[in-house]
Write a structure and sequence with these properties.
The complex is a heterodimer of chains A (353) and B (324). By secondary structure, chain A is α/β, with parallel strands linked by helices. Chain A contains 13 helices and 13 strands. The longest helix of chain A has 20 residues. A seven-stranded mixed beta sheet of chain B has the order 3-2-1-4-5-7-6, sandwiched between helices. The chains are: A alpha/beta (353), B alpha/beta (324). At the A-B interface, helix 6, helix 7, strand 13, helix 11 and helix 12 of A face helix 1 and helix 2 of B.
């Protein structure tokens, strides 16, 4: 099908988060192909309001024709879902997956219930969609549990910009980038530090990402205090792109012990810069990292500490992880992802039953 | 082999080395057990609503929060009239609500006070227990080196045929542990026994045999009661203290189904003492128990057909029995 217009719908559009960056990239790519493309949101965000329209305004801003496709980014519950179910235009999904509610229930029941709602919505959306794009094989398998729909796997694009230099005599810095949420396993990383510091007393941990729930923030800060790590762990909060780049440049190793990832953009960003990666193997992490990182099967503090110690001190391993990661990140180069996206959107015929 | 494949196998090897190193450091006493346990527990204290895991502190906090009754009823309403009516009712009934609220709040405080005392007392016991564990673990690193130096006195493989017949008709899976070598496990699998191994140290296990690399006590702690069709206890009778030997035996018995078949492979105490030398014999916590002792323990459990078979070089004994 040759779509003349592909309009994207997203619950909320924010610059700097993985979904937001993906949405903006798709819009720019489609426009560069001469395709009409706008972004519609379920909840408006002041910072990006100039780039988006509220979803109810669609008929004021675009004229739908038979060759208009609506593309919905599924990542959380949103009024977009009900709105799109009532539209007549062909609908396709970009499935980013969502955190299993049980991982958040203790911490923020309202978010957990929203996620349950998102799961309910997804079943109807799948039934209504003509095809779906998933970030990873793992996400494709999850989507398949909600119903049958033609789907293809297209990862998120990440530019490879190698910048990593081994720390040498400098302070070894462990970097985590992502939302500060209970399912991201940041507390597991913090818990490994007292063990790691017995061998590497100078080590520092930087947690770069926006907080999500107050209870988890309190818990994390309480844990850091209880383990006497306030001088060792820095929680930066949300940072802009410039600061994020600096964090990557100063990192000696990237580590995530997340319990659930549908893709893992920061992993690719770290690999693209040649930063050695240590990760807890689960969900889509092994598919994202591929053969290019140390994938742990346990999060026990002695194992995590031993892995980080190796990744910080073993020169040969650091070099190999860096080279391998950089090589792996080329699979997510924007021009390759663009080809795959074109193939999915414009060159494959999806037939409605 | 491509760069990617070669990296993949190299990184897998590194991860295996890391996991082995972590196990070695943990068992050598480099990380005090009290520290590891406190790391495990520290974060759980902060998990909301996980009172069973957190001890009683969170539960008490929740009771205290719930027991506080605010006598000031909310008066918000969609209409000004509604808000006004609610405000008047609140003013008129405030003396009554306050009286009730004070009594309920006082009751909550009285209920939680003994719980708080109990919690403080439990925490004090935990702290003392952790300190005691560390004190008992003195020179754990030395003992760990000595344990690592204990040779495997004889191959257990020669018991393969006898054990194959012994586990012929068992009511479930058979566990073998603590494994030092995988040959016996392989032999028993070939004999048709549905068996898996638990090894706290590295073994040259292949994918053909099911070996879980973890501490046997941890593994048994996670296992459901009455889930095993039988067990072969080895390793620990050669290396563990008497307390560890008896503890693992009790745990294994509790995990066995009715009619399970069991076996213990134990080094002859004299062979052990002769091979080890005086330093290790003095410093190690325990020494192997005689086959007669294992037979006695099994008989006390009303086990039937308790049999002792000696290895060809007399270094080891195999004790087999059937549980009632």
């Amino acid at each position: 099908m040759s779509w003349k217009a592909v309009h994207q719908f997203v619950p909320r559009f924010a610059r700097g988060d993985a979904v937001g960056s993906h949405v903006a990239w798709i819009r720019d790519h489609l426009r560069s192909r001469g395709c009409h493309s706008e972004i519609f949101v379920g909840t408006e965000n002041e910072e990006t309001a100039a780039e988006t329209f509220y979803l109810q305004q669609i008929d004021h801003h675009v004229r739908s024709t038979a060759d208009t496709l609506l593309l919905y980014h599924v990542a959380q519950a949103s009024p977009c879902a009900q709105f799109l179910l009532e539209r007549t235009e062909p609908l396709a999904l970009v499935f980013h997956n969502f955190t299993p509610p049980e991982l958040l229930m203790h911490w923020d029941s309202s978010v957990a219930f929203e996620l349950l709602k998102a799961r309910d919505q997804l079943g109807d959306l799948v039934e209504r969609s003509i095809f779906a794009i998933c970030d990873s094989d793992f996400n494709a398998r999850v989507l398949n549990e909600f119903g049958r729909v033609d789907s293809c796997v297209i990862p998120l694009p990440v530019e490879a910009t190698r910048s990593f230099e081994p720390a040498g005599g400098q302070t070894p810095i462990i970097l985590f980038v992502g939302r500060v949420a209970p399912n991201k396993g940041i507390h597991d990383l913090v818990t490994a530090l007292p063990i790691l510091r017995r061998r590497l007393p100078e080590v520092r941990l930087r947690v770069v990402g926006a907080p999500t729930t107050e209870l988890y923030d309190q818990a994390l800060e309480g844990l850091i205090d209880a383990l006497d790590l306030s001088e060792v762990v820095s929680l930066t909060g949300w940072v802009d792109e410039e600061q994020l780049e600096r964090e990557y440049q100063e990192a000696s190793v990237f580590c995530t012990l997340s319990d659930h990832e549908g893709f893992g953009v920061p992993l690719v960003e770290a690999m693209a810069r040649g930063i050695p990666v240590v990760a807890y193997e689960n969900t889509a992490i092994s598919q994202t990292v591929g053969d290019a990182g140390l994938l742990l099967t346990s999060k026990k503090p002695p194992v995590v500490a031993a892995a980080l110690e190796r990744a910080l001190t073993d020169g040969a391993l650091i070099k190999r992880l860096s080279d391998s990661g950089h090589r792996r990140s080329s699979a997510f180069a924007p021009h390759k992802i663009a080809c795959a996206l074109d193939q999915a959107l414009f060159q494959v015929d999806f037939h409605e039953d | 082999m491509s760069d990617s494949q070669s990296d993949a196998s190299y990184f897998k090897e590194v991860v295996a080395e890391i996991e082995a190193e972590a196990r070695r450091r943990s068992s050598s006493g480099e990380y005090p057990r009290a520290l590891l346990r406190s790391l495990d527990e520290e974060f759980r204290r902060w998990v909301p609503d996980a009172s069973l895991e957190n001890g009683v502190e969170d539960t008490i906090r929740a009771i205290e929060a719930a027991a506080y009754v605010d006598p000031a009823v909310p008066v918000s309403s969609r209409t000004p009239m509604g808000r006004c009516v609610k405000w008047v009712v609140r003013r008129l009934t405030y003396f009554y609500h306050r009286h009730m609220a004070q009594q309920i709040t006082a009751l909550g405080i009285h209920i939680t006070r003994p719980l708080r005392l109990l919690d403080a007392s439990l925490k004090s016991v935990h702290r003392r227990l952790a300190a005691l564990e560390d004190r008992l673990d003195v020179d754990a690193a030395v003992r760990s080196e000595l344990v690592a130096g204990i040779p495997t006195f004889s191959s257990h493989e020669q018991f393969g045929e006898v054990l194959g017949a012994h586990f012929d008709k068992v009511p479930g899976r058979v566990l073998i542990g603590d494994l030092l070598e995988v040959q016996l496990l392989g032999t028993l699998r070939n004999e048709g026994v549905d068996i898996y191994g638990v090894a706290s140290t590295d073994t040259s296990a292949t994918e053909a045999v099911d070996v879980r690399h973890e501490n046997l006590f941890d593994h048994l702690g996670d296992l459901q009661n009455e889930s095993l069709g039988g067990f072969v206890l080895c390793g620990i009778p050669d290396r563990g203290s008497v307390n560890e030997q008896l503890r693992v035996f009790r745990l294994l018995l509790s995990k066995c189904k009715t009619g399970a078949a069991v076996a213990v492979i134990v080094v002859h105490p004299e062979t052990w003492a002769a091979q080890l030398g005086p330093v290790a014999a003095d410093l190690l916590h325990g020494r192997p128990m005689h086959a007669e002792t294992w037979s006695y323990l099994l008989a006390r459990e009303d086990a039937s057909e308790v049999t002792v078979i000696e290895a060809s070089d007399s270094s080891y004994c195999l004790v087999t029995a059937n549980l009632p």
